[in-house]
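--- STAGE predict ---
source: upstream dedup step, 1 unique chain passed
mode: sequence only
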Amino acid sequence: MTVIVRDFLPTDAEDWVRVRRAALPFIVTTPERVAFELASAHPDKRYRLLVAEEDGEVIGTAQTGLAHDSPEPGQGFCNTYTHPERTGRGAGGLLLRTAEEHLAREGAVSVHAWVLDTPSDRAFAERRGYTPSRPAHFLRLDLAGGPLPPRREVPAGVELRTAADFADDPRPLFEADAETTADEPSDIPAVLSDYEDWLNHTWRNPGLDRGLTSVAVVDGEVAAFSAAHTDGLTRYMSGMTGTRRAHRGRGLAKLVKNDSLHRARAAGYTDAFTGNDADNGPMLAINRWFGYGICATEVRHVRRLG
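--- STAGE serialize ---
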């Protein structure tokens, strides 16, 4: 039996999600979202989706491209995952090699890859020249049976809204997202400066639930937000919770996240997920306060090309 690697086709979307959910059961994605993110990717991202196929069955996936919004040029990324029942066939290595060749042609000088924090996964990366960098956690909250902190009284001067209220002009949300993203700990710093790209890739993403995305407004300005992504069925994920610098220290991150979680539970979602950089102590503390528990850890690895 021979494993081949090829580019993703629209007809692969269901299989892509099947493999990703088997390998990473704590992510929230849909076939529509996978296809959308490929179609809407910025040209400078050089974004590709790859699949590994054995006898007509998709057994592995990879997403690769350039961090086009980083102030450091030449930063590439590649995340490969093989179905846990189809490992040991060479799919992961072939996906990674194909992605590295693509990135080298596009001018990448480094490749960053998320690797599950297991002995076999870390050994796979290290055998291929990757060095471990910073860890991050996946966290889960039982929305169906677990308690949520009660809704607190909204502080004076603060108004709670949803992203749906900004449908006519989402730029204030873009500005808040850009500021908080710039302060997020990462090996690859990001600068969000392209409003049209943000509209195309983030605002119009079919996974974004605007009605469950809670926003705190102070004096007419977006002060904090908690972005909600869902699969439209049972799974909810906090895509980003951030507070603008001038409004930090007032508990607004807890306020908007709690509002979003209550909305999600009322809408019938049963499993809430989120992700945190392991060094982001304040956000980890907030998530522990909500009752989230760590369900897995990934470690970002990096390899220099050339």
